[in-house]
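Hi there, hope your week has been kind to you so far. Do you reckon you could talk me through the fold, stretch by stretch? Thanks so much in advance, here it is.
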Amino acid sequence: MMLDNLYPRTKSDLVRAIQKMPIRKIEVIDGYVTTDERELIKAAKELSQGSGDLTIILVRS
């Protein structure tokens, strides 16, 4: 969950929010295509196991 439920609206807001988060693990999926949907869901399920929050950030460039 983003800090204090403040959702970033700009790239710099996003960077500041990420820098303040206590991150334990990062999974980067680059070049996503719809055929990779199962891999995306699998990664989300693996990361959500255990305690703590899971934050998923999607960026379209």
Remarks:
- The helical segments are 11-20, 37-48.
- Residues 3-48 form one domain.
- DSSP finds two helices and no strands in the chain.
- The chain has one domain: 3-48.
